[in-house]
Design goal:
Layout: E1 2-5, H1 7-24, E2 30-36, H2 39-54, E3 58-65, E4 77-78, E5 89-97, H3 101-110, E6 117-125, E7 137-141, E8 150-155, E9 158-163
Parallel strand pairs: 2-3, 2-5, 5-6, 6-7
Antiparallel strand pairs: 1-9, 3-4, 8-9
Helix pairs in contact: 1-2
Amino acid sequence: MKLVLNQHQIEQKIMRLAHEILENTYGIPELFIGGIIGNGETFAQQITEIIRKNSSQKVTYFKIDLDKDHPLDSKINCSIDPNLFDGKWVILVDDVINSGTTMQYGVLKILEQPVRSVKTVALVDRMHRRYPIKCDFVGMTLTTTLGERVEVMPSNGSLEAFLV
């Protein structure tokens, strides 16, 4: 395993991502920020808190729960009523985007409603897409082989990202 981001670097990237979102949503009165179950929800909560502290925007946090390995085998759940997304700006967050599968199915759940805009955020983008998903906000782009993977996991009491 090779360390690619330590806790301090992850915190810096989350702060920068939150401020990029603030800049790009200036004048938007209400945002919905959702995290994909796992580390995506952790990062979405952190981004939500930063935006709340630095803006007067109304920000609603939610999470998307789906089976990352077999998204069609079980129901995709949203922690809030998806009808609330109608006509709103929605931002979906995950820790690592690789093939785009998880993000694609998360976005499809959001698009069950006529939203105004959907933007995607990832801490690490590996660029190995199988689906037409791009990340609007990226903490770090990392060139890897198809056999490698990036995992964000606890290490010494904090989260770190490793190339495995």
